[in-house]
Design brief:
This protein is α+β, with helices and mostly antiparallel strands. It contains 14 helices and 10 strands. The protein starts with 8 loop residues before the first helix and ends with a helix. The structure holds flavin-adenine dinucleotide.
Length: about 400
């Protein structure tokens, strides 16, 4: 299979049907959801009912059992619709908490949480970040005290996507010192669980973001995902898929911005001609297109290597995450510039794309954290240097 043209006829059929879904079930509601600062739960149900939430998940739990390129199709179509906030909500449901349940959950946990989430009947969230710890996952302070037949959970989580809408939150808690952390599936109906909306966000307005408080919350032992004490490793292993989808959404958002800027440059006139006739604008568009192609190549290569190596493809995934998420912001910023004053208004959608894209270098691991991972792999790892020498004889 050619990694740069990975789609077959089935992928294209999926693309076509999801594009229709976006046109009828998402696009007409976006302005309202942006104003409400959250989407409607109904969109999860409709997505689930149509089979678009669980494309890559096993069929026995309500997924479609398709390959990762099918998830790429869904992510690209959402990005092409310029619905960053909604994409974020759907992504925080499908690619943050559910891969953990799928990877280490029991059959009962999968039936109780994952299957209804894939049907869109339950909304899910993943809570790692705290007011005092984001990049430094090892610094979290929320504790889960083993009380025999339940955990007593105390602490607080910050910036949690879907936090107020969620029916369950896959939560990282401290069960001991250092990296002794665990993951609990916390039912949001439990006494001691409270979520308040964070409404002062720069962008991603359609997504619900919350601060969560856990106050003497009694969580049953059956809520433990995998083994107690292994939570940090589960999170690190499952974060790669989340980063891949972010790269795909990033490159496709850049493509959308190039298209919008080209259209505008052909229509808008200044000094007696279309601004797209000015060489400076044409060259800007050319540079935007080059950056977008580079982002696409890197994102697709990362998906391809992940399919071959799994989480061991960490180097290329981290590189793609760092590169794409920085570049997409430049491309969208240039698109806004080409739109002049109208770019600063809401009319053409570029302002929203600009606001939404700003999160890309912060969420799912900041660019600086990606650079840390990459530098550890290439600077500190002598194997990498040996490979470099070996390749040159
Ligand atoms: C809208 C939104 C939605 C989010 N959704 C979720 C969610 O659903 N679930 C969840 O758990 N979290 C979520 N987050 C949190 C997000 O993952 C964190 O904001 C992110 O990981 C950064 O953590 P922080 O904000 O604590 O920044 P910090 O970690 O405090 O970083 C501050 C700055 O220091 C830099 N820095 C940190 N460590 C290093 C280092 N070692 N070397 C160099 N520079 C460094 C960072 O790159 C950054 O520039 C969300 C955030 C936002 C804004």
């Amino acid at each position: 299979m050619n990694p740069f043209h990975p789609f077959n006829e089935d992928h294209e059929l999926l693309r076509h049907s999801f594009r229709e879904f976006v046109k009828h079930e998402i696009a007409p509601y976006i302005e309202q959801w942006e104003a409400d600062k959250h989407c409607d739960r109904e969109v999860f149900r409709k997505m689930g009912e149509s089979g678009f939430l669980g494309v890559t998940y096993p069929e026995e739990f309500g997924g479609s059992g398709l390959d990762l390129w099918s998830a790429v199709v869904i992510a690209e179509e959402l990005a092409h619709a310029n619905v960053g906030g909604l994409s974020m909500s759907l992504y925080a449901h499908t690619y943050l908490p559910l891969p953990l349940i799928n990877a280490v959950g029991t059959t009962e946990q999968k039936m109780t949480y994952m299957a209804p989430a894939l049907r869109g009947e339950k909304v899910a969230a993943l809570a790692i970040t705290e007011p005092g710890a984001g990049s430094d996952v090892g610094g979290i302070k929320t504790t889960a005290k083993d009380m025999g037949d339940y955990y007593l959970v105390n602490g607080s989580k910050m910036f949690i996507t879907n936090g107020t809408m969620a029916d369950f939150v896959v939560t990282v808690v401290r069960t001991g010192e250092g990296y002794d952390m665990s993951v609990l599936i916390i039912d949001t109906s439990l006494p001691g669980f409270r979520a308040i909306p964070v409404k002062n966000k720069l962008g991603m307005h359609t997504s619900d973001t919350a601060q969560i408080f856990l106050e003497d919350c009694k969580v049953p032992k059956s809520a433990l995902l995998g083994y107690q004490g292994n939570g940090f490793y589960y999170i690190m292993n499952n974060i790669q898929e989340e980063r891949l989808i972010a790269c795909v959404m990033g490159w496709a958002s850049a493509e959308w911005a190039v298209y919008k800027a080209m259209q505008y440059a052909k229509e808008r006139e200044a000094f007696g001609r279309a601004i797209g006739k000015f060489q400076v604008i044409r060259h800007k568009l050319a540079q935007m297109a080059i950056k977008t192609e580079a982002c696409k190549s890197m994102a697709y290569r990362a998906v391809h290597e992940y399919l071959e190596q799994g989480p061991a493809a960490i180097k290329i995934i981290s590189m793609a995450k760092a590169f794409v998420c920085e570049q997409v912001q430049e491309v969208i910023d240039d698109a806004l510039q080409i739109h002049g004053g109208w770019g600063y208004m809401e009319d053409y959608g570029v302002a929203r794309a600009w606001r939404d894209a700003r999160l890309m270098t912060v969420g799912a691991g900041t660019t600086e954290v990606m650079h840390e991972i990459i530098s550890k792999l290439i600077v500190d790892d002598v194997r990498h240097q040996r490979q470099f020498v070996a390749a040159r004889g």
